[in-house]
Specification:
It is built from 17 helices and 34 strands. With 769 residues, the chain is of the alpha+beta class.
């Protein structure tokens, strides 16, 4: 496996080996969107595919029988709740999950009601008795091409059963005291009104306490049930018999994403330096900064308190805040930790006890805190659940963060979570453990941060540049690539202790101690993000957005890291971004353009001919490396299960022959680029709102014109968007041999185009010292 490429650096960050350093006179160039960038995308599907045409007759019989069994399992519950809709699960053929294969005509002719999705291969519908009868008849008798294809793609039909509604059982509900109830949302206003009124009436009749939670996305209703230890088994059973209940789960709790191992404290010298008034601010949503931590005086510029002692001892929040303000200073000026710190807005909202805080408490506190400080754009959340994310379904807290991010236009920096079980993970170690990222790190709009070590020591479990043993890995639900990046979180010494490889943090008592956790990688990334946002403010043609800052950090990580294998990406993400300069400025051997693309369905966005630096052309061919990152905030549907993300951007950098585009990055035929939908999701990250591509051409490629192209596709049944999808695309072309003429040649080639451009950064980020 590859390991992180290390560079030797001097104290002020200059490289004395490896790649050239960024220069403030070589800023990334922002290319404005023009309607002329859009063109007809062409294409079009063929006739619907019939899977196993020869066995279709027997398949029809088997499918009809599975429908009979499913309806029989639902009939009792529907009899108890007159007027309700029975939920059916269409299990689709693994090679037929693309929207072009969906059995939509079958659903329409049977007058079924669409009810969203669950797993990647599961389509949900709902029906009354007449709809069931019509579906049964169509499966057996309708003999046109479209219906035959629709029937063939459904492997079997299952009921939305009691186990689906409450997979953890009623005992878990009573033990947790509170639960989250998600109601089915149908593509029918009258059906939605009916089911919600019916469930609210039932809750009142059963004497169950509930509250409807705020809805920040277009999803249907989420309710919080409380005082469940007093609820009878009979009442819970009656509630769970209602076909309109999609899910009833114990309310999750979240704790600080740091380990409990901290060394004996030592006196802290006054080493954080003096904060500057013009520094950006990071909101630290945590257990609070201790009033006794005088070394943070001046760094904390405001407080918002929701939790008081004894529910907090201010320990974890102080740890995190100290790294936001001065990770570099606290840790001896280590070159992997950015020199730049930020000011801290202290939001004391996380209970520090063994059970942490319930999700709804955190969600309400977070929304209130956001409403008080809409000017703060970077929010650090070093917290997480104790278990891994689901394989296919996104967590309620992750979806809540996405809704709040859209509402308040903020970027959440979220810790990937800590794996503290045995066996202890070392590196390289690709064994499958229960170490997937935890909620809310599955939030698709947030920047999820894993941890790597920064010091190699004989007694440490992993070395510098390697994923730490506790850092949870990807992918997220539905193979969403996570974590997005990694940063320094502190190393672990055998058997599970702190030591020289761990990270130094400030304690609530104002001493310095060593610790480790993804809690401590996230605030380092938060400080970088805050300075990036500030560096873009005041731009004449571009408003800073969370997706742009996220894209710049991910792109910077790609530039600073080696190419990773698919397995390594699950631990490293894009890699480790070193500093702000590499996120905003080119070195002399690289040339970076940042595009603000506005994508519309049915049209391709294209920039051509692309300005290729002459220093990267050999015999007319491009000879160098292309590194591309694209990030966007897609429409989201919290009721769509694995199809939560509703838009996909196809991105390519390649050559033109007339109007025909031939992709080179990624190359047509690469794993995850073509083939069945399932393979593109698993290996290519299809539907993930982050696209990362890189490829080197040491022998050269493409003697003609090059182009950068993107297209947007929507999910089946997704309404036409009211506005274009904004996608930030960053493309760096750089030399393989350190040629110092690349940037200057790139700027000359850009000047020969008619593209409207400006410098991307407005200001050079300030330093803490």
């Amino acid at each position: 496996m590859a390991t992180k490429k290390k560079q030797n650096r001097t104290k002020n960050g200059d490289s004395d080996g490896g790649r050239l350093t960024p220069q403030t006179d070589s800023p990334f160039q922002h290319i404005s969107f023009s309607p002329e960038d859009l063109r007809n995308a062409g294409g079009g599907g063929g006739p619907p595919k019939i899977f196993d045409a020869e066995g279709l007759f027997q398949h029809r019989l088997g499918l009809a029988e599975s429908l009979n069994q499913a309806w029989g399992a639902l009939s009792s519950d529907m009899g108890m709740h007159p007027g309700s809709l029975g939920g059916l699960v269409f299990k689709l053929h693994p090679d037929g999950i693309a929207k072009s294969h969906r059995p939509l005509q079958l659903v329409d002719e049977a007058a079924l009601i669409h009810a969203g999705h669950e797993k990647v291969e599961e389509m949900l519908v709902a029906a009354h008795g007449p709809g069931f009868n019509a579906l049964h008849r169509l499966i057996l008798e309708r003999d046109i091409q479209a219906i035959r294809a629709n029937v063939s793609v459904i492997q079997r039909i299952e009921p939305w059963s009691r186990v689906r509604r409450n997979p953890e059982g009623t005992l878990a509900l009573r033990e947790r005291e509170s639960a989250l109830l998600r109601v089915f949302r149908y593509q029918s206003d009258w059906a939605n009104q009916t089911v919600f009124s019916s469930i609210r009436e039932l809750l009142g009749r059963l004497g169950l306490h509930y509250r409807v939670l705020p809805n920040h996305q277009r999803g249907w209703h989420l309710l919080r049930l409380t005082k469940l230890s007093n609820a009878s088994e009979e009442a819970l059973n009656v509630l769970l018999s209602h076909p309109g209940v999609r899910r009833l789960l114990p309310e999750p709790h979240f704790k600080a994403a740091a380990t409990s191992s901290i060394s004996m404290p030592a006196a802290a010298p006054a080493l954080l330096g003096t904060p500057r008034a013009d520094m950006p601010v990071v909101a630290v949503f945590d257990t609070g900064v201790s009033p006794s931590a005088s070394h943070l005086n001046g760094w904390v510029v405001g407080r918002d308190t929701y939790v008081l002692p004894p529910d907090t001892a201010y320990q974890h929040g102080t740890n995190v805040a100290s790294l936001v303000a001065g990770a570099h200073a606290l840790n001896g000026g280590h070159p992997d930790l950015p020199v730049i710190g930020t000011l801290v807005y202290d939001v004391c909202a996380l209970d520090e006890g063994a059970n942490g805080s319930p999700m709804t408490d955190l969600a309400m506190r977070l929304e209130e805190a956001l409403s008080k400080r809409p000017d703060i754009k970077i929010w650090n959340l070093s917290l997480g659940a104790s278990s891994s994310c689901d394989d296919q379904v996104f967590s309620e807290f992750g979806k809540t963060l996405d809704g709040l991010s859209e509402k308040f236009d903020v970027l959440f920096i979220v810790a990937a979570g800590n794996y503290v079980k045995e066996p202890r993970r070392t590196w390289p170690d690709g064994s499958l453990l229960d170490d997937r990222i935890s909620s809310p790190a599955d939030s698709v709009l947030s920047l999820t941060v894993g941890s790597v070590g920064h010091v190699t020591d004989p007694t440490a479990l992993t070395g510098a540049g390697e994923p730490t043993p506790y850092s949870r890995r990807g992918p997220g639900p539905a193979f969403t690539p996570k974590p997005d990046i990694v940063h320094v979180g502190g190393g672990v010494h055998t058997p599970w202790n702190v030591g020289p490889a761990s990270l130094r943090v400030l304690l609530a008592g104002n001493e310095v101690a060593s610790s480790f956790g993804t809690s401590f990688a996230a605030p380092v990334a938060s400080a970088l993000a805050a300075h990036l946002w500030q560096g873009l403010e005041g731009h004449s043609q571009l408003v800073p957005r969370p997706a742009l800052v996220k894209a710049l950090l991910i792109h910077s990580a790609q530039l600073a890291s080696p190419p990773y294998s698919p397995l390594e990406k699950r631990y490293f993400g894009a890699g480790l971004p070193i500093d702000i300069m590499t996120s905003l400025y080119d070195s002399q051997d690289s040339f970076t353009l940042v595009f603000d693309a506005q994508l519309v369905g049915g049209l391709a966005w294209r920039k051509a001919p692309y300005p290729i630096p002459e220093a990267l052309r050999v015999d007319g061919k491009f000879c160098g490396e292309a590194v591309i990152t694209a990030v966007y905030a897609p429409p989201l549907d919290p009721d769509a299960g694995a199809e939560y993300v509703r838009a996909h951007v196809e991105l390519g950098f390649g050559t033109l022959e007339g109007e025909a585009f031939s992709g080179k990055v990624p190359m047509k035929g690469e794993v995850g680029v073509d083939g069945y939908e399932a393979a593109q999701i698993e290996h290519g990250g299809k539907w993930a709102p982050v696209r990362m591509h890189r490829k080197s051409f040491p022998q050269g490629s493409g003697a003609g014109d090059w182009a950068l192209q993107a297209r947007v596709y929507s999910r089946a049944l997704e309404p036409a968007p009211k506005q274009a999808l904004q996608v930030f695309i960053i493309c760096t072309l750089r030399a393989l041999d350190g040629n110092p003429n690349v940037h200057a040649d790139g700027m000359r080639a850009l000047a020969a185009t008619n593209w409207v451009r400006q410098n991307l950064p407005v200001r050079v980020p300030v330093s803490s010292f």
